[in-house]
Fold each of these.
Amino acid sequence: MSIGIEDVKLHFLLSIFFCFGINGVFATGRRLNTAESSPSRGIHHVPERNPFNPRDSGSVLFNVKSFGARADGRTDDSKAFRAAWKAACRSAGIVNLIIPKGEYLIGPTKFTGPCQNVSSLTIEVKGYLKASADLSKYDSSADWIEFGRVEGLTLTGGGTFDGEGVKAWPYNKCPVTSRCKLLPTNIKFVAMNKTVVRGITSVNSKFFHIAVVECNYFKGSKLKISAPPNSPNTDGIHIERSSFVYFSRSHIGTGDDCVSIGQGNSQVTITSITCGPGHGISVGSLGKYRNEGDVSGLVVRDCTMRETSNGIRIKTWANSPGSSAATNMTFENIVMNNVTNPIIIDQAYCPFESCAFKAPSRVRLRDIYFKNIRGTSSSAVAVMLECSRGIPCENVYLQDVHLDLAGGGHAHATSSSCKYVRVKYSGTQIPPPCS
């Protein structure tokens, strides 16, 4: 029987299919049991196509358990996490670091770049990460989990970061004195670029839950953040010296601000946040330190405040050591549900029992828009605008504000209070405008 050239081609193609087809063609996705293991411990090469880069033939997976993580909730797994990160950061292409289900005890840990040859790095947290409660393990500058100088990081997976703050809160003296030691933040991002944080939970942080510092193009969504109402300084999200930051579709309930926008920020958007308990969404505090950066381009919209002590708040210190500004800020479509101070500008901010105000705030507030703010206030003064006597607020607009007194009563039972500001009103105004 003679064999033609076409038969040779057919046999050749069939041999390729049966040699490589099962582990190559059909092994799409992250199937560790069929992936080809590399000689390096904890590494798996997976032929998963990247839809954004047709040239990518696959990704590399690292599993913290392959580096010795026990996930028993008692053994300190910090060393295994650092080793897994070091290997992932030194890898190349599309990299995935997996933290499987289990309970991991972790001390202060930094995940630092740059990761020179990595095009994207995804950390998929499925497990429950529990912070060490021993404060002696954290030096004066240590937070719990810190990511720094990484581009293209995605943190996701539905896992939980438990700061074990209950044992640390009694040592927090910051609510009563400015000369205090800061406790560790749960998750801190420093000098990051193009970061995505999605679908994670942070509970009982010792200090801030999530801090975003000196980052660009940062996107967070579907976050769950919680701590008791009496937990001190447990801000849900704190943003500072960052640009193009976007947080959305999250539930935050803490003992402090749900979101705080600090100094030096630009182009920040906060949308679809449910806040409560807590102190609301705040700009500031600003003006406490010398050489603070300006705040501009802030948009807060489509948010709900539930029984918070403040709704939308702008707070600046008196006795400012330097000049700065907060301008072009819009707060739109905000629902207040039994909120103590639904709309408040406080340019004599004092979180302590008493403060010596020797000079007015030097933070200039200008071009501020409150639009479609509605719901109920638990206090009679629903709108309080107290600006700096040294630099009065400029171009403050209130459009369609309807805030009734909680618990019923006359529709106009709420009132407004204004100092050193001329407000421009339009549309519905309940409470009535300042005289």
Note: Confidence is low (pLDDT under 50) at residues 1-41, 44-57.
Amino acid sequence: MDGSWPSDILIEILMKLPVKSIIRFKCVAKTWCHLFQNPSSISRHFNISKKNKHLVVCHRDGDNDNFVIRLFVDQALVSYHDLHLPFHFASIDFLEFRVDNGLFCLLDPLNSVLALWNPATREIKICHECNKNIRSKFYTLFLGTIGFGLDPLSNDYKVVYIRKYHESGKDIQEPAHYSIYSMSSDSWREFKDEDVEFLRDYEVCGSSNNACVNGVYYWHTCKFINSSCDYFFKVLAFNFSTEVFQLIDSPFSKRGGRLLPLHDRIAIWDTDLLEDIEISNEVWVLDDDGRHWTKVLKIEIHVLQVKKLFGFWKNGKVLVESVTGELLLYDLEKEEVQTRVKRDFSYVYTYEESLVAIGKK
């Protein structure tokens, strides 16, 4: 590498730069361009970025009702700037939004438009439609949800797309369709009926209450019990490396709760938006065996009426939503609110910049 600086020191400095600066420096020298495209350098840069994670929230603009992605640039959640969504997704009626390892996954469920987006490099890939013959003019989409994450073994980003249709004008539903998209091959694979037969009686809950941890995506699922007119909840896990689904018993079988990451483990917080359900405010984490849960703490927020826990932040703080729709940064030890953001938020994620190239389609 040219220059008077030792190459190892120069590389160390470059790896700490934001993506915007690195993109500009690609044209300085061919060696720099190759460096920033090297998978090991991309991984190294991302690991450094993770030490300074940011918060991204998705909400609707009060003026035009468009979706807006807000990126907070400080740890106190005071300073921010808005990321402009790719054109198609800004003004749609419904948006499924996921974030993992520096990339965003966007779904317009009504039109089955799926895209991968790297806001740091400003690249977007509109994924080609999965199995165009599934839906006919006689069927309408009843449920559409996604799971998105990085396969740590192949270093490939993947999307699980779950769709359920019903015949127009009739109360007849088809079994859910399960498919998976690979970014590296730009291709879809349909799951065989026998691979998902055990999920036939379960409804996968498509909401912001789901999460991806260490290459495994977790959803809430529920099963309606006719004899008791009640719902029975479990957790559905999908391993992006093995591409296998697994049902896991939930510590709260009568209600969904909130799935969220906690110290590289999947956790579940016992909360529910239904006021007539008694909740414990306990947080449980999934054990290493992938089947059992252990209670780790109980979150008591005495000074607030909280309806949702978005996630754990830094230094003993949690991100919660109040009953008035505010996003709050709450210090559990001091029992005080540190920051109030007056918005009605749909999704809240942690985010780190990535150099991963996704190409344009």
Note: The first strand starts at residue 54 and ends at 60.
Amino acid sequence: MTSYVSGFVKENQGSQMANIKWAVVCQIATISHDKSLFCMSSVIFAFEYCAMDRVFTLCANLGSAFEDDRIESQWLEEFEKVVLKADPDVAAIHFQEIGGKEYKMCMPKVKKFVRKLRDLSCFSHFDRVRGFFDIDFDTEDEFTALGNIYLFHSRTEPVFLWDFETNTFHGVQGDHVLFEELKFDKQHQKEKFPTEFYPDVTWSRKGLLHTKWKLFGSHIFNLVNIHLFHDDDNLTALESPSVYCAYRKKALERAIQSVNRTLADLQEPVLFYGDFNFRLDFSAVMRHIISSGHQAEFLKSPSGKLFDKIVYRPTTEDTSQPTVTVERKRFYVADATLFTSDYKELLQYDNELNSYAELLELPINFQPSYPFSEKIDEGTKYMDKRCPAWCDRIVMNNSALQLVKKSPGGCIYDMMAKEICVGDHKPIYLVFTIESSKKGKGSGTHERLVSYHWLLLGAVCAIILSGIAAKYW
């Protein structure tokens, strides 16, 4: 029986309902052993867990979803699955590249997408919504293609949103999603990074969108959606350190300073969600893949001035099939297991975040989030485009990390749609629980306690039966 309980907990780790069920299973598992005290402890565990508020947060580069209706449909389906499993009181979603690569043509789809997301069954009992979507691409100096949407369950106690103009919190009621009107709103802070930060391009959509919340009584959260500069050329990225890392560093340092200027206290929790475009140390990865038994062939462009391709072939085997091919816009590797089942070997080369002492992250237990195939039936394959990397992440300051790590119900940091095509970026989500500073009837915790009362009643009955069994059998 003990092994069954252990297996149940391992299989359902991180699920709120599973943890409550675990408490009930413990009652059954201990009846024959007359461990009534242990049974009571499990009931207390279940009661206390129900008294927590659960937060679901996610970041997703949506570029592919607006260019293929099938990808959009699968994205929403996979998203709903993870939300239903999390059973949150609060959902905080942060999108990059809304409208996709062809944003001028696809931007009208954004409003329809937001409506579809709002109408998902997982949000049927959410009665307050705030959305901030930057769709005004005509204002090139300010356009970021970022979108944030926040949804609050009816059981959640009052929610407050910060006004950056008056420096005060205001209560949130009803549904209010901003699109064209975003530029007039004062309850968010948006900034586009200067083009001089990325001299290789004349224009980009990279920037940040920051909101600040007071939730669960007195907990303050600064939630920042961010999109940093990408690697434009694989051959240039082979340089170590990469020039693209320097471009991203300028932008992220500016973002940190921008957010810190708005904090009343530097100890306020701050969480960054987004496509950071962090890449692995590409030259180190190549050394990892290419053994001494390989020969490099450098192929020049038609002009003969620049190398356009590097091909690595084994010298001891059939040389017709290259092990690795690197071009400016293409990266091919014959054996992709290093980026899938053996991905943990690559974490030693994931070093960009180490440059920021103030930014921290939970342990990564999922394979690189980019660049996955955009073919609808290739949900687990990478494109031959860039070296796979953990571009999409959720990082935070120390105050936020300590709050998340102390999550009474545990926390989950994972990748969505691991086997299903949802575009070239797989969304990353974080789920954690917070102990509300206001408990009792009228708070979100009260409704959850009532909804699980039958589980607790079953646990109590198990204790009674255990006592009867011990006395008469």
Note: The first strand starts at residue 52 and ends at 61.
Amino acid sequence: MLSRDSLLFSPTRDGVPSSDDDFTANDILQAQAALEEEAREAIPYSQSSGCTYDQGYVKQPVFACQTCLNFAGVCASCSIACHGEHELVELFMRRDFRCDCGTSRMGAGSCCNLTKRADAAPNDNRYDKSFKGSFCICGKPYDPHTETDSMYQCITCEDWLHHACVFGSHADTNDSPLGTDDFDMLVCAACVKSDPRVRRIMDRWAGVEGSGVMMVDKDDKVIGRTPQEEEEAEEETEAGATATVDETTEREGGEKRKADTTTDEPAMKKAKLLEFEATSSSSSSAAAPSSSSASSALAASTAATDASSSEDACIAPPVVPDGESVLMRLEKEGARMNVFLEEGWIECINSFISFPYFLEEEEVLEPEDDPDAQKSTMELGLEALEKMPRGASLDAMHGYKHLEDRLKAFLQPVAESGRSVTKEDIASFFEMMQEERRELAATR
């Protein structure tokens, strides 16, 4: 994490002057405004929401403290009230998490400033490498000021993965088989390989044609789209090819003809799609036999479900023999084992009963927004000044006026000489002010 000094004077940040460059007072004011705006975006929460410890194990924004012992996680309110001066790593949303502030996990004497809870028993939270600031399969620390690639959160382990680590190339290259809008959820390869429950489900679902539970083979071909998505993808490919031909076809007289941009508006995706048409014999012949048979059985099962109008009928693909699933085939071929669920994938409550977050959006405990979040430091200072007793307020204003006059007098010769103000000049000024203060105190 960046220290305060490097945060203010870092050449890696847009709009913030570097200590190696010449800059004006206006540059500093603009940099301060930029930092305040960034702080409001990063932590728009109010401390009045209180610590979430008593709420139990809930899904909430979590911050991992790198300063306290054992890399514990704290809620949004405690990240401000109790750990505001500590080095924190934002983990974003984590499910089934209870605030560690004021528990023995953070070391003896740990106390929550909001609830005055101290040395409570440690929680049964799940901790991983991200609590130490390490993300993705590459283990790279996340720095929001230098990271340029897109990142996706695994729906199962909640780790964040780089686009390049998922697809093999940076998001900006635009050559990935799936774009950000092409899938709704990601199950990372690590979860598919290491979690037996996830593996058992994905052996049955992943890559099955028409299921919407997609995988990418070693040739970057997407397997498992729903028929509607498959048709849209083919239309986009054909439209792209037509546009390429049209753009290079010249009219009589040498004028190039523009590509036809009047295309039919794509059909809306059906949220939580429960039915689809059976794929015809034009299905990809490159798919494995198990994929084709599973697709046909899945279509037949769905049709039977529609005919009977029974909500209890299972629409999951049939269980395939060990070693014959699409997932196993792709694994043997050396493909990446990430699984992508598109919006409108064929849901099956019976299959995913142990993973409710696959089927419905989870309830999130979010803190209240800070009503003062949009106010600048100056505005907050003036409000605080107005709330002070009259005598203290006058003393504060007189002290500010005295500082302003002394600083102007000190910098006047520098301005007349035309040279830049240096760090040594500022240090000399405050040393002079401290000496005056010591002399004044000695005479009293």
Note: Residues 390-417 form the longest helix (28 residues).
